[in-house]
Every structure is written in C-alpha cells, then in structure tokens.
Specification:
Length: about 220
C-alpha cells in the first residue's frame, strides 16, 4: 500500500505539470452533448477534477447556474480561476488534497457530478472512496457522469504493475503516472459500493499515430439510489 500511495502522490504532481504546461482548450464532445441534453434538469453541478476549467466554461455556456469545480492541485485551480474571470463565469472553486470530504466543502445537495478523465489517476482504494463521497453530495436520483479507460486501451499493461490493473506508465507522454484501468465488472462493483445505479454504459474509441495508439473509454451514467 505504501508503494501505491507514494506512486499516486507522485502522479498528482506530474499531472499538475502536464496541465500547467499544456492547457486543454476544448471540452470533450460526448460530455458537451450530455450536458446540453440534460441542462433543463441540472441547476447545480460539480466538476470533480476540473483541471484548467475547460468543462466549467462549457457548463456555464450551457446555462447552468450553480457550478462548482474541485481539484487536487492549487496551481491548476489558479488557471481555472483565470479562465472563469476571462469569460465572466460564476463558479465556486475548491482545492481538496484529500484533507477534507466533499460534503465538508459542499453543503448543498447537487443535481450532477462530472468525473471526466479522473478515475484512471487514482488507485482502487481512492476511486472507491471518491464515488462514495459523490453519493453524499447528490440529491435523490442525482446523476454521475464519468469515463473510465477500458482494457483494450494501449496504456493497459504499459509499465510496472504495482497492484491489480494499476500501472506506473512507461510511455513518454505519460511516463511515471499511476494509471488504474479496471475491468467492467470491477467498475460496476465500485458503483454498487457507492449506492449508485448504472443507467447506461457507452464507449468512446479513437486512435493516434496511424492506428498504433488506441484510446478506449467506458462512459457511464449513474444515479443515486
């Protein structure tokens, strides 16, 4: 466990550098469609792991009124804050480096939690706990939309496996990062343990470098039971 905790802390720092040095400009297309399709039902939303704020901007443009962003890294939140100020976006931003529970930061119950590109960066014990925390801040029947790397992704099995389906990546673009890429049955168990009912499972798959690199994701919508 000590090795996993140290690897995860190191990975958080690498992600901070990655986002700080190459700000992601555009929101994910699937998530954008989802937010716009459901905006009439969502007045309040949390972007967990909001990074530089690319999805906060998109959510604001969709017309949602109560927007919250949470991230582990302070410098990344500073970029998100600058982005929100530039486009006159009203949102609450919180740093949470695991010293508080989400329901200690967020007092109101929310309609939706977005968890995009985050599940892979946390080991099993942390991912399971995070989804349990989502349940505590959601309204009854509140939604969680999240994506998970699938095991046919090129990053699965890359590097040293330090726990089941948990790797220290060797590929230059992700070198040193901890990636947790569970199978679908294990993902479903995380949702069951958090009292979240899966509504739909979709997929997103694309390639890079003339088909040599496979990017494959499960996209899961769930609701609080």
């Amino acid at each position: 466990m000590d090795e996993i905790i140290k690897a995860q802390e190191h990975s958080y720092k690498l992600w901070e550098q990655h986002i700080f040095n190459s700000m992601l400009l555009y929101p994910n297309e699937y998530l954008t469609r989802y937010i716009y399709a459901n905006k009439r039902d969502f007045n309040s939303i949390l972007d967990f792991g909001c990074g530089d704020g690319r999805h906060l901007e998109m959510i604001a443009r969709a017309g949602l009124e109560h927007i919250i962003g949470v991230d582990y890294n302070r410098s990344v939140l500073d970029i998100a804050q600058q982005r929100c100020q530039k486009y006159n976006i009203k949102c609450e931003l919180y740093q949470n480096n695991q010293n508080k529970k989400l329901n200690e930061l967020i007092k109101d119950e929310l309609d939706c939690v977005v968890c995009w590109g985050i599940t892979l960066t946390n080991a099993y014990y942390m991912t399971s706990e995070i989804f349990k925390q989502f349940t505590k801040i959601l309204k009854p029947n509140g939604k969680v939309i999240a994506n998970w790397r699938a095991q046919d992704d090129s990053l699965y099995g890359d590097g040293k496996e330090i726990a089941k389906d948990t790797f220290i990546i060797e590929r230059d673009s992700h070198k040193g990062m901890l990636y947790y890429i569970p199978n679908l049955d294990d993902i479903k168990e995380i949702y069951r343990g958090a009292n979240l009912e899966i509504i739909s499972i979709d997929s997103e798959r694309f390639t890079n470098d003339n088909g040599k690199i496979i990017n494959s994701w499960h996209i899961i919508e769930a609701k609080k039971i």
